[in-house]
Amino acid sequence: MSLYNNNIQIRRDYNEWPLVKDVPGTLINIILEDMVKKELIKKCLNKYNISVIEQFTNETNDDILSWTELHHNIQKIPYRRQPKWFTKLVEQIRSKERVANNLITPNPYAIREWKKVESKWAMDFEDQFGKVKKWNNLTNKVSLQRFKQNMESGKLTPCKGCEISLAKTKTKYCFMERDISKL
């Protein structure tokens, strides 16, 4: 129990020696200290790869996510009904206001960095669909080939010109430029 009491988590790869797990955030062990059956709850948390309190909160850490909303932060989809340990843990997190005020903001588990990918799809805040064609690292902008959604079939088809299109393009399809932060 000395590793647990010192808030140290270990991982074991193919190395003989255990390595300290380096994760951003506030370790969940602070919450587990006062709980009954903390070893069993810790085992369940390890199953879902949950090790920090920020994985339970939204991007601004002002609200705790429900069991069905948690999949974005833990990168696993919980298929079963909400377990009892989750309910008890959420109640314990809400009761510890001192801990809730010291969480990392913005939440590193809720906000994922947008990475450059070749020929992938993107959607902006205005629900405009596009296929990434060009990437400008200097301005952090992306050029997208715009696609429209057919309401009857639900399929995406290339837009052949509209008011959103970049001015004076010499192609037969519509292109738009978006800031990466708005995708």
Task: Produce a short descriptive summary.
This protein has 183 residues and is of the alpha+beta class. Helix content is 21%, strand content 17%.
Please give a structural write-up:
The protein contains six helices and seven strands; from the N terminus they run H-E-E-H-H-H-H-H-E-E-E-E-E. The protein is an alpha+beta fold. The protein has two domains: 2-100, no CATH class; 121-182, no CATH class. The strands form two sheets. Strands 3, 4, 5, 6 and 7 form a five-stranded antiparallel β-sheet that branches. A two-stranded antiparallel ribbon has the order 1-2.
Name its key features:
183 residues, 7 strands, alpha+beta, 6 helices, single chain, five-stranded antiparallel beta sheet, elongated, two-stranded antiparallel ribbon, 2 domains
Q: Tell me the radius of gyration.
A: 22 Å
Number of helices: 6
- Beta-strand portion reads 15-25%
Q: What fraction, in percent, of the residue positions are helical?
A: 10-25%
Structural class: alpha+beta
Return the average pLDDT rounded to an integer: 80
Largest sheet: 5 strands, antiparallel
Query: How would you describe the oligomerization state of the chains in this entry?
Result: single chain
Separation of termini?
45 Å
Tally of DSSP β-strands: 7
Low-confidence region ranges = none
- The shape is elongated
Number of domains: 2
User: What is the H/E order?
Assistant: HEEHHHHHEEEEE
